[in-house]
Design brief:
Elements lengths: L20 E3 L5 E5 L2 H14 L4 H4 L4 H14 L4 H8 L4 H6 L18
Antiparallel strand pairs: 1-2
Length: 115
């Protein structure tokens, strides 16, 4: 970025404020969250502008970001309960369904056999 473009300071946010909020026509940030469709469109728009090919862009969405967060948090050593505090999941089993680990030896007990 060449310069800071915000029109003012960030508005005070409640602890449970939505991460992605809509912007009014006058440029003010509202207290209402973006719709799921708007988040989805923004993610794909940014992925396209970042140069990803259309087939890859078609795979991106809010859900893939959530799964990516959980996967990377596990890779970085976070435990399920730590991740749950961020994602709002209520059980470790549900958090683990979001871990998209496609490396068959990661977290596999066979690596502990010493063979």
């Amino acid at each position: 970025f060449e310069s800071h473009i915000c029109l003012g300071t960030l508005p005070a946010a409640e602890k449970r404020s939505p991460l992605f909020r809509s912007v009014r026509k006058n440029g003010n940030i509202s207290d209402t969250p973006l719709s799921g469709a708007a988040v989805h469109a923004a993610i794909r728009r940014r992925a396209t502008r970042a140069g990803y090919d259309p087939d890859t862009v078609a795979q991106f969405g809010g859900h893939s970001l959530r799964a990516g967060f959980v996967t990377q948090a596990f890779r970085n050593g976070a435990d399920a309960h730590t991740i749950m505090r961020q994602t709002g999941h209520t059980t470790p089993a549900m958090v683990e369904t979001y871990a998209r680990e496609h490396a068959p030896l990661v977290g596999n007990a066979v690596t502990e056999l010493g063979l």
